[in-house]
């Protein structure tokens, strides 16, 4: 495991994955038919980071919330993806699905930092545990959180209040009107 908040470890990770890319490329070219004339054209400009910092927010979404399919009065989006933990200290993956057809809500409070009033957070760094994060980090959910955060910011500016002071029901109504949630 590498800590993405540590510049030296992040650099080391960049070096290692670039070596791994060449290892895989050379293996394919040497042993797999059809790759004889392959060449390495491009790889990602930067290593993908799965998880690093998260805020401490007004609510901390947990793995239990995910697996129980909890919906909240202030849910600003929904997710049905399972718990999907790639072992941070080695190999292996933990996959725990929700009940068939079930889904959980992400409360607006998870986007609101406890100690900073003029900030809204969306995507991977919202207030959640490691387990809940492994589910909510998927792209569609991050996108939906972004829409909710943007809508909330616009409402707060319009009403002249802090983001934590807006009415979560009004936010949900607006997101419904915009077709973001049902
Ligand atoms: C290797 C890998 C594979 C994955 N595979 C999948 C998958 O198959 N399906 C899936 O749904 N999810 C997948 N994910 C997870 C998903 O891609 C991320 O969790 C998700 O994109 C996070 O969204 P985000 O908005 O929180 O952050 P990001 O998508 O990282 O967006 C943050 C943006 O902010 C920009 N930024 C950073 N700093 C600044 C700054 N100072 N000023 C301006 N802009 C800045 C960045 O350039 C970036 O564009 C994968 C993740 C990884 C690492």
Explain how this protein is built.
The protein is mainly α and 182 residues long. It has two domains: 1-49, no CATH class; 63-177, no CATH class. It is built from five helices and four strands; from the N terminus they run H-H-E-E-E-E-H-H-H. It has a two-stranded antiparallel ribbon with strand order 1-4. Strands 2-3 form a two-stranded antiparallel ribbon. A hairpin with a 6-residue loop joins strand 2 and strand 3 (93-96). Helix 4 (139-159) packs across helix 5 (168-177). The mean pLDDT is 96. The protein binds flavin-adenine dinucleotide (FAD). Flavin-adenine dinucleotide binds at residues 48-50, 123-124, 137-139, 142.
Topology of this protein?
Layout: H1 7-31, H2 63-68, E1 75-79, E2 83-86, E3 93-96, E4 104-107, H3 130-136, H4 139-159, H5 168-177
Antiparallel strand pairs: 1-4, 2-3
Bound molecules: flavin-adenine dinucleotide (FAD).
Helix content: 25-40%
Q: Spatial order of the strands in the main sheet?
A: 1-4
Number of helices: 5
Beta strand %: 5-15%
Please state the average pLDDT score.
96
Helix and strand pattern = HHEEEEHHH
Class from secondary-structure proportions: mainly alpha
- How is the biggest beta sheet arranged? 2 strands, antiparallel
State the separation between the terminal residues, measured CA to CA: 39 Å
Rg: 20 Å
Q: Tell me the number of structural domains.
A: 2
The strand count comes to 4
Choose one word for the global shape. elongated
Low-confidence stretches: none
Q: Cofactors and ligands present?
A: flavin-adenine dinucleotide
């Amino acid at each position: 495991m590498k800590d993405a908040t540590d510049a030296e470890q992040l650099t080391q990770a960049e070096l290692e994955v670039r070596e791994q890319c060449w290892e895989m490329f050379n293996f394919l070219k040497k042993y797999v038919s059809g790759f004889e004339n392959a060449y390495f054209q491009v790889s990602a400009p930067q290593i993908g980071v799965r998880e690093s910092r998260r805020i401490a927010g007004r609510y901390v979404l947990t793995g239990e919330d995910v697996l129980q399919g909890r919906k909240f009065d202030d849910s600003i989006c929904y997710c049905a993806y399972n718990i999907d933990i790639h072992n941070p200290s080695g190999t292996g993956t933990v996959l725990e699905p929700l009940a068939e057809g079930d889904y959980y809500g992400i409360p607006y409070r998870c986007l609101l930092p406890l100690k900073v009033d003029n900030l809204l957070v969306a995507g991977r760094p919202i207030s959640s545990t490691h387990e809940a994060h492994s589910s909510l980090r998927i792209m569609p959910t991050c996108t939906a959180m972004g829409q909710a955060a943007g809508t909330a910011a616009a409402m707060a500016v319009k009403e002249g209040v802090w983001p934590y002071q807006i009415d979560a029901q009004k936010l949900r109504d607006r997101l419904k009107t915009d077709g973001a949630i049902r």
